[in-house]
Design brief:
Low-confidence stretches: none
Strand content: 25-35%
Largest sheet: 6 strands, antiparallel
Oligomer: single chain
Helix content: 40-55%
Number of strands: 6
């Protein structure tokens, strides 16, 4: 059962992710809400006793920089692939997260969608 606060964070996340071309939401085998483009995951969210987690695909350089900030941490099990997580994002963290999610999407999206995205944001 998702808490009210977590449901709000999931809605915010959903709004950001599903605004991206051809992004879809699925529930994986672990019950995580996973956002994919062209069959590739770019955001995974889930709940734990600590609250709401958002994990996103990054690259090693960005991951290194993000891990120096106190609210980001390496995603368990897939962190070695460059994934980064944040717990219970709030307020202005969502502004930063929106950009990071868009970058994650562009890492996972096929070239034609990246091109379409770039053209529509210039």
């Amino acid at each position: 059962m998702i808490s009210q606060e977590n449901a709000g964070m999931l809605e915010t996340l959903r709004t950001i992710c599903l605004a991206l071309p051809e992004a879809v939401e699925i529930v994986d085998g672990f019950g995580h809400k996973t956002f994919k483009v062209n069959g590739k995951s770019f955001v995974i969210s889930g709940e734990s006793e600590k609250g709401f987690n958002v994990s996103f695909k990054s690259d090693r350089e960005s991951q290194e920089l993000l891990l120096q900030k106190e609210h980001f941490f390496k995603t368990p099990y897939i962190g070695h692939h460059g994934w980064v997580s944040i717990q219970n994002p709030a307020g202005e963290q969502w502004d930063e997260l929106t950009g990071l999610i868009q970058e994650a999407y562009l890492r996972a999206a096929p070239k034609r969608l990246v091109k379409q995205w770039m053209e529509s944001h210039n």
